[in-house]
Structure formats: structure tokens, C-alpha cells
Amino acid sequence: MFLRTEALRKGKILILTFMLGLFLFFYSPSFAEIKVFFSPEGGIAEEIIKQIDNAQEYIDIAIYSFTYEPIAKAIVRAEKRGVKLRILMDKSQSEGKYSKYGFLLDNDIAVIQDRHAGIMHNKIAIIDGKVLFTGSYNWSKSAEERNEENLLEFIEEEEIIEIYQERLDYLWKFNEGK
Questions:
Q1: Buried b or exposed e, range 135-171, using 16+ CB within 10 angstroms
Q2: Does residue 123 have an active-site annotation?
Q3: Which among 73, 91, 121, 130 is annotated as catalytic?
Q4: Among 73, 128, 130, 141, which one carries the catalytic annotation?
């Protein structure tokens, strides 16, 4: 009798462990992924463009320096697909000779200049609430080809993306109303 009861108990534990494993497999944020990139020649622009080209709903960006044409063209492609765009740029950088600010405006992209007293030195992009880019990497040819830069890409990392999204929402609201 004892052996039978012990076998039943072990069987229940095994079934519960299996069910817990299935639950964690399907409902855990363990699918989150973090990728690390460095430049020069580390594939950063390629990854950014790939994710922009895969965007379905929206892209929110706060970027200090944006002069790199291939990324700007990817943003225009996204807009033409119906992706909602919000881009915040540093005022002094957006007025620079090679800035893509005017190009984006000319292509009906929602782009505004930061109006805080200091510089807007963020480098953040969120795509569909599922992909986050941040790091030292400016969206410039120099960052891609010459500078020592870094970029972190968070995929399906909900808590971190939510924190950055709240900050981007705040920055957008602060700057669009003035």
C-alpha cells in the first residue's frame, strides 16, 4: 500500500512539474533577447534598418544626431507603409548641414525639435513596443564607419521597453505643445 501511495505522489509531482514547465515556457518573458553591437563596421545600421523595415504599427525615436541617409530612407519607407512615426531631435543637431530633419519633414514624417534648455542627447528608438534600441550610437555615417560606438537592442523585454516608452511619451508631449 505504501509503495502505491508513494508512486501516486511522485506521479502527481511529475505532472505538476511538467505543467509548471509548460506554463513557464509559454508565458515567461524568457523569450526576451538582448543584442550588443559595436561600431565601426559592427552591423548597427543594418540591424536598425531591418527592424524599421519590419515595423507594423509605430516607431518612436529620440535621437541626438541623425545624418545617415540609409536609416532616413528606411523611415520614409515605413511611413509609406502606414507606420505611425514620432521623431524627436536635438535642436542644434537638427539644424546642421547634414541633418535629416528637413528630409524627414519633406516626407511628411512627424519630427520635432527638442526645446529643453540643454541638449537632447538621447539615442532611443522603440518599434511596435517590442524592440528597443539605445546606446551611444548616433544615426550618422561617422558613428557607422569611424566612431567607437555601442548599441543595445532589447527584443520583447517588456519592462525595460515600457520604461523607455514612458520617457519618450513625456519628451514628445513636452516638446509638441510648445
A1: bbbbbbeebbeeeebbbbbbeebeeebeebbeebeeb
A2: yes
A3: 121
A4: 128
| Three-class SS state of 8 | helix
Q: Is 53 designated active site?
A: no
Contacts of 110 (CB under 8 A, 6+ apart): 84, 85, 86, 87
Q: What is the pLDDT of residue 32?
A: 83
DSSP-derived 3-state class of residue 19? helix
| Helix (H), strand (E) at residue 58 | strand 58-63
Instruction: Give the span between the Cα atoms of 104 and 68, in whole angstroms.
Output: 12
- Residue of 60, 90, 114, 123 with catalytic role: 123
Average pLDDT over residues 82-96: 95
Please state, in angstroms and rounded to a whole number, the distance separating the CA atoms of residues 59 and 66.
15
Which residues partner with 36 through β-bridges? 152
Q: How many CB atoms lie within 10 A of CB 96?
A: 15
Q: Residue 5 pLDDT more than 80? A: no
d(CA 176, CA 98): 23
**Whole-structure pTM value:** 0.82
Return the closest-CA partner of residue 67 out of 105, 110, 98, 104: 98
48, 75 contact by CB (below 8 A): no
Q: Is 60 a catalytic residue?
A: no
